[in-house]
Amino acid sequence: MIMTQKHSMTQILLAVLATGVMIFCGMVIETSMNIVFPTLMAEFNISTSTVQWMTTSYLLVVSIIVPISAYLKERFKTKSLFIFAIVFFIIGVSIDAFAEKFALLIVGRIIQGIGTGVALPLMFNIIIDEVPTEKLGIMMAVGTLVTAIGPALGPTLGGIISDVLNWHYIFIFLLPILLVALVLGFFTIPQSRPLNKRSFDFIGFAFIPLLFGGFILALNQISTNGIASWQFVTSLLVGLIGLLGFLHRSKHQTQPLLNLSIFKNQQFSAHVVSFLLIQMTLLGLGFLLPNFSQIVLNKSATIAALQLLSGAIIGAIFTLLSGKILDEFGANKPIKLGTIIIFLALCLFLFSTSHLSNATIIIFYAIFMLGVGTALANIMTNGITLLPSTYKADGNATFNVTQQFAGAVGTTVCSTIVALFQSGTPSSDIYTVTTRLGTKAGFSVLAVLTGLSCLIMWLTLNRSNK
């Protein structure tokens, strides 16, 4: 049995870096692919609702794997999990680097999702297990910062690479970085907790892909076959069966894959819901803006990417600063301020859709990411601290699966809304006009979501201070 011991902050930082690099690469691919969606649509002759599966399939698989992270943490060594995860990710990236068919691209993304689903909770579990409470906020922010750099660089890299070379090189350039992370993690990943050879709930796990897959497919069917179609109804029923089955199984297992009793803590539940709504908006905007720029404003992939760069950098910087603020002053101020800024930014997008330009997109997105950087990581950190130490791994898994599933839902919802409005051929004026209308409808939905997130956190934090 492995005995508990503390490790140096240097080793912890390097371990976080090793696990974070893989997640960073996943975010780079995810955000850079959003930029080259129009290129992929033209090259493979596919629709908007089809191309979004490049992102949705990846996030869906991550969502399926992350709920078992608490089990994996108890059952297997952290270093073994990391090696498994990064090898799978490297295989998936290698497939996509040389794929010539869209179906093969999806296969590569699914394999990458398996790797990320295992690795994503590892980084935060290392921080939660190893870092003293008084430094937890800043270290959680560092972990979030590692992943936040991906969205900062991804769109720009995707745009430049696809314009100068081609989109295959997005994957090719990441391979040596992943190999370095593999070596770094092999020598630094710590193991502080003893292992527990508990049994795996295969029946409970079988409900997870039904749950997430069913609901995502149902959303996707709205634009392709309509809400009255048998495909939509069937997918929705599959999702409901998965949800009810997983809830029933978790309730009657002594050691469930994910301990859902943590949701009895109403304040924790409120943090999760708010986190979900913001994450949906983050990924939804990541789909709407690049497509709007290229289709409506007729900009290149590089210009569409550069529009998001300054905002992503601001978000990354304020993620780190807000963690320091949380450690010194608590979660109340950064979360409240951040959620207000996010809502105001979506209102700016919504009421200016008809007049959006390069300059306004850059400014509005920078404001949005200022809010995200101030609030998002602190919502996760504060939510996890509301739980007893025995449930923190379940809390971490909950936030991570929420992050990935929300991203998949946000991308699918926004692509579905745009696809419902679009008509005409891609080069026609009517296609441009209807894409603008669909984008405005997408902004409307995201504004409602961010307004709800803001309201939930203000009510929750005010209640906790009484």
TrEMBL record:
Gene3D superfamilies: MFS general substrate transporter like domains (1.20.1250.20), Multidrug resistance protein D (1.20.1720.10). The chain crosses the membrane at residues 12-33, 53-72, 81-99, 105-124, 136-161, 167-190, 202-222, 228-247, 268-289, 301-323, 335-353, 359-380, 401-421, 441-461. One of its GO terms (molecular function) is transmembrane transporter activity. Keywords: Cell membrane, Membrane, Transmembrane, Transmembrane helix, Transport. Residues 11-465 form the Major facilitator superfamily (MFS) profile domain. Pfam families: MFS_1 (PF07690). Its main location: membrane. It is a multi-pass membrane protein. GO terms for cellular component: plasma membrane. It comes from the Bacteria. Belongs to the major facilitator superfamily. EmrB family. This is Transport protein. It comes from Secundilactobacillus similis DSM 23365 = JCM 2765.
